[in-house]
Amino acid sequence: MARGRVRRGPVAAVGALPALLSVWLVAEVVTAAASPSDYPRGGGPKQASCAEALAFGGARLPERAYDADCTVESWLDTRYAAEFRLPRADLSAWLDRTYPGVPRRTDLCAGDTTDLCLRVGFTDEDVHMPGETSPGFGAHTTEVLVDHESPRTVLVRLSAFTV
Question: Mapping DSSP to helix (H, G, I), strand (E, B) and coil, where does residue 49 land?
Answer without folding.
Answer: coil
